[in-house]
């Protein structure tokens, strides 16, 4: 017998019971009237999440654009070296940890997917299934914690940020990226924004709600940016609508298309300047596709 879904009755961020379904009463996305946090009112059980992530696709392609972004991030972290330990949450295929090791970091990671966990372990990164498995001897030992497009997947962000605070040393850095709920694409596409998907994405952050969460746990903001716009996501939404009544499964890798487009733009000096100007505008208006934050433990 299929179990009936459970739903949150209070805000995941502030605990208020003043919630509204912003895409209609039948939709699972709610917004807190008190703190403005947006989250999935529908609850994903641990069993549902484990089953979902055990089926998560594995990618053996390491894109040059991704590599350059990892290298750029690691350059920012150099001034925070002390214990030389870096921890990635939800490390996936382990490419960021691979790059970190090349830069002489002691690499640690967590990963819920059984197959991806085994893969990263084979690469000799120190791996854990969950944060609870990290021994107390490692508390206060990490220079940097990295969470790349992960926090939106987490059912209880308070639990994880509290753990991050315990694991980081004083003045250690926390770098996170996540889809920006205030993005231009989300405002245009509404409930059709492709980041709205259950049970993959459970929490949706803005600059304001991210700051509210992190400052509660002794973190101080160094910078917050919103960058990027995804033409392929708009195309994906339109094409998905066109194919919705067809029996053939519609496939469209918008991430790969955006990577290819960005790589082509970066090769053209004029287009590269336009891209930088666009990102400045998106950051000023807090409407970029991706929210990037760097906070330091006080």
Protein described:
A seven-stranded mixed sheet has the order 6-5-4-7-8-11-10, sandwiched between helices. Strands 1-2-3-9 form a four-stranded antiparallel sheet, with no helix packed on it. With 298 residues, it is of the alpha/beta class. A hairpin with a 7-residue loop joins strand 1 (19-21) and strand 2. 32% of the residues are buried. 36% of the residues lie in helices and 20% in strands. The chain has two domains: 1-43, no CATH class; 61-244 and 251-297, Rossmann fold, CATH 3.40.50. It starts with 18 loop residues before the first strand and ends with a strand.
In short:
Helix content is 36%, strand content 20%. The protein is of the alpha/beta class.
Map the helices and strands.
Layout: E1 19-21, E2 29-32, E3 38-40, H1 46-54, H2 64-77, E4 85-89, H3 95-102, E5 106-110, H4 114-122, E6 126-128, E7 142-148, H5 157-167, E8 168-179, H6 184-189, E9 203-204, H7 207-215, E10 219-227, H8 231-243, H9 254-266, H10 269-284, E11 290-297
Helix pairs in contact: 2-3, 8-9
Can you write the helix and strand succession as a string?
EEEHHEHEHEEHEHEHEHHHE
Shape: globular
Radius of gyration: 19 Å
Characterize the biggest β-sheet: 7 strands, mixed
Strand order of the largest sheet: 6-5-4-7-8-11-10
CATH superfamily of the largest domain: Vaccinia Virus protein VP39
